[in-house]
Amino acid sequence: MIEIHHLYKKYGSDVHVLEDINLTIDRGEFVFVVGSSGAGKSTLLKLLLREILPTKGFIKVFGRDITRLRKREIPYFRRNIGMIFQDFRLLEDRNVFENVAFSLRVIGVSTREINKRVPLTLKLVGLQDKALKNPGELSGGEQQRVCVARAIVNRPAVVLADEPTGNLDPNTSMEIMKLLHDINVRGTTVIVATHAKELVDYFQKRVVVLEGNRVISDRERGVYLNAY
Ligand SMILES: Nc1ncnc2c1ncn2[C@@H]1O[C@H](COP(=O)(O)OP(=O)(O)OP(=O)(O)O)[C@@H](O)[C@H]1O
Ligand SMILES: [Mg+2]
């Protein structure tokens, strides 16, 4: 589903962030991307979302080289990808329902369909009772659940999460990671960049380690502690 070929990324003229990255991620996989701060995890996710372009190399997603997408094709490509950030990025002046409905409204999904899909998705993340609250009235963990709901409401094939538990306490972090795991079990490919050692060790999923601009380890059922 995702093929990364000899990917290089430089910011400016000489700051190499990624060098010769090669990765294949199959449909339905759950992948942790770990590595020290500045190793290039967020850069890799931004490349996958086609937020930025590589300096060299290419990325195939669903069989298409996304480095060659035309500008007007990018929004269509992104409909198949759900993105979750560390800092939530919710619309503070809209309630939970509207935050989740927003991306569906943008792409012209009917109100009738939205009124079906949003409550189902909120139920899936355990927020059926919070639909009318604003983000400011929710705990950090609940806000991140809204973000998970927002990322999956359009039933994307892939969910990318950049430090989804970075602002949460250990118990809440575990809940969010379990939620991502459930989503994966239902068939969505999930890629999570994280520093959360205990969670990586607990879930025993594929672990890709970025260090010194490169992938230094890629293991099927890896642990974080021994990864370096
Ligand atoms: N827009 C940018 N312009 C210039 N340099 C950048 C830019 N974005 C990131 N960098 C640099 O690229 C390197 C990798 O950054 P990136 O955010 O991908 O790391 P990371 O692995 O996500 O780190 P963290 O764990 O702290 O989130 C860092 O040295 C960073 O300073
Ligand atoms: Mg980062």
Structure, explained:
By secondary structure, this protein is α/β, with parallel strands linked by helices. The chain has a domain at 90-154. The protein is 32% helix and 26% strand. The strands form two sheets. The protein has a six-stranded mixed sheet, sandwiched between helices. Strands 2-1-4-5 form a four-stranded antiparallel sheet, covered by helices on one side. The two termini are 27 Å apart. Magnesium ion (MG) binds at residues 41-42, 162-163.
Task: Walk me through the topology.
Elements: E1 2-11, E2 15-25, E3 30-34, H1 41-48, E4 56-61, E5 64-65, H2 74-78, E6 81-84, H3 96-106, H4 111-124, H5 140-152, E7 158-162, H6 170-185, E8 189-193, H7 197-203, E9 206-211, E10 214-219
Parallel strand pairs: 3-8, 3-9, 6-7, 7-8
Antiparallel strand pairs: 1-2, 1-4, 4-5, 9-10
The chain binds adenosine-5'-triphosphate and magnesium ion.
Provide key terms for this protein.
six-stranded mixed sheet, binds magnesium ion, 228 residues, alpha/beta, 32% helix, binds adenosine-5'-triphosphate, four-stranded antiparallel sheet
Produce a short descriptive summary.
The chain is α/β, with parallel strands linked by helices and 228 residues long. Helices cover 32% and strands 26% of the residues. It has a domain at 90-154.
